[in-house]
């Protein structure tokens, strides 16, 4: 039984034959000459019917003309794929640059926020000991940029240094040498001067920074991969098929354009290597979408960094409130040090800062996914680029009509997960919804 596709091919063949027979060879070849010169080829064309190597039927194109047209159609496809790849890669790179700058600014803002709060509370006492906090934020930034220390280790080092400094300031009446302080540092886990605050903040920082760093690196990797994939090479078989599809009709005197379905099938054959990465690309998109959802919710780095000053303040106040018990524990572990008769006791008291809700005080305002991009703000838009070669062709004349046809196809019941929207408080909120195309 003959398929619809076979009937379509036969119909096209009959149409070509009819058009070809409608003109005499010299007249057809004059039309071919005019078309050939429009492609910026200036060589002399004899007005006669010849047989080229690619276009087997009676043709007005010589072997040299076929080679020129073949090179042209190769260049058209390569240029279209390159434009498509540069567009997607450029969108990912722009997103990477925006978020990278944004996250670094968040770290700087968090440090400035802590500087203001602690200077207003402790004055010169904080200035004299601010290197502990500066080093903490420096290590967080180094981790984000790919440093070797893990967030958990950075947090542990900071709270150990903070415990030693606060203990010194609260116990100026004792002589605390390096050996004694080393004993305290080795036993911070047993002393637990800040209760569970270090563990809580460490977990929050680890979740937020790991997700943020992975997300930004993923954007950069995706951009690099797309740009490399867009630099394609074409096989001889592909080039011949492109030439046959695009220009053999012209060489035979048929001025009718190639059909969309045939064009797209040939291009798909030429870009089969890109189709093979479709599954991997989809996994990449799903992973990036999942990270984006976490960054918009429980792993929100803006909320975590915005609360560091309050959580560290709470840790110091907890230490002060339990000073007697903590000192007793330290003396029990490391021994009671000698008294310091020349000590002056500093004031290390602060009031609790006004509590604030994370959502109210730190609204999420991530930069838009693609600056200047008017489409949906989700990575789902890019999911098809790995699987559908038509998306790689850019503005190539090979696929303008195919893309127009594709846009008009009806797609019903398609689920678009994790669309990003803003709620009334300015918070990013992921949601799932079904879209029925009318």
UniProtKB/TrEMBL annotation:
Domain of life: Eukaryota
Region (Disordered): 390-438
Membrane topology: Lipid-anchor; GPI-anchor
InterPro entries in the record: Glypican (IPR001863)
Ranges of compositional bias, category Basic residues: 400-417
Keywords: Cell membrane, Glycoprotein, GPI-anchor, Heparan sulfate, Lipoprotein, Membrane, Proteoglycan, Signal
Places the protein is found: Cell membrane
GO biological process terms on file: cell migration; regulation of protein localization to membrane; regulation of signal transduction
Gene Ontology CC terms, in alphabetical order: cell surface; plasma membrane; side of membrane; synapse
Signal peptide interval: 1-22
Family: Belongs to the glypican family.
Function: Cell surface proteoglycan.
The protein, known as: Glypican-6-like
Organism: Ciona intestinalis (Transparent sea squirt)
């Amino acid at each position: 039984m003959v398929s619809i596709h076979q009937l379509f091919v036969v119909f096209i063949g009959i149409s070509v034959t009819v058009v070809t027979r409608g003109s005499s060879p010299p007249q057809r070849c004059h039309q071919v000459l005019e078309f050939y010169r429009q492609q910026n080829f200036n060589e002399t064309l004899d007005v006669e019917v010849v047989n080229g190597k690619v276009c087997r039927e009676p043709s007005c194109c010589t072997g040299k003309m076929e080679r020129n047209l073949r090179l042209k159609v190769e260049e058209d496809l390569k240029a279209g794929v390159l434009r498509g790849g540069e567009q997607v890669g450029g969108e990912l790179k722009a997103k990477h640059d925006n978020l990278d700058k944004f996250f670094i600014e968040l770290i700087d803002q968090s440090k400035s926020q802590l500087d203001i709060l602690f200077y207003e509370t402790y004055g010169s006492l904080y200035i004299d000991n601010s290197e502990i906090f500066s080093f903490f934020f420096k290590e967080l930034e180094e981790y984000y940029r790919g440093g070797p220390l893990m967030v958990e280790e950075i947090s542990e080092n900071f709270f150990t240094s903070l415990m030693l400094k606060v203990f010194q300031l609260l116990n100026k009446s004792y002589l605390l040498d390096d050996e004694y302080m080393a004993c305290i540092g080795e036993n911070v886990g047993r002393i637990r001067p800040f209760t569970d605050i270090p563990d809580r903040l460490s977990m929050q920082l680890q979740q937020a920074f790991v997700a943020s760093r992975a997300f930004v690196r993923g954007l950069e990797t995706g951009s690099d991969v797309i740009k490399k994939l867009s630099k394609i090479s074409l096989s001889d078989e592909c080039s011949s098929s492109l030439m046959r599809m695009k220009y053999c009709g012209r060489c035979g005197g048929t001025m009718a354009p190639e059909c969309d379905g045939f064009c797209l099938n040939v291009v798909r054959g030429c870009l089969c290597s890109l189709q093979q990465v479709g599954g991997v690309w989809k996994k990449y998109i799903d992973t990036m979408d999942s990270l984006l959802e976490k960054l918009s919710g429980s792993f929100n780095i803006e909320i975590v960094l915005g609360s560091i000053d309050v959580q560290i303040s709470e840790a110091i106040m907890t230490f002060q409130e339990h000073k007697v018990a903590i000192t007793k524990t330290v003396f029990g572990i490391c021994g009671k040090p000698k008294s310091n008769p020349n000590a002056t006791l500093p004031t290390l008291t602060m009031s609790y800062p006004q509590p604030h809700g994370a959502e109210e005080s730190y609204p999420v305002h991530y930069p838009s996914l693609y600056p200047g991009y008017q489409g949906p703000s989700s990575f789902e838009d890019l999911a098809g680029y790995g699987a559908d070669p038509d998306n790689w062709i850019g503005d190539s004349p090979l696929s303008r009509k195919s893309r127009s046809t594709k846009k008009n196809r009806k797609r019903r019941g398609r689920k678009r997960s994790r669309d990003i929207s803003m709620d009334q408080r300015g918070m990013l909120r992921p949601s799932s919804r079904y879209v029925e195309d009318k």
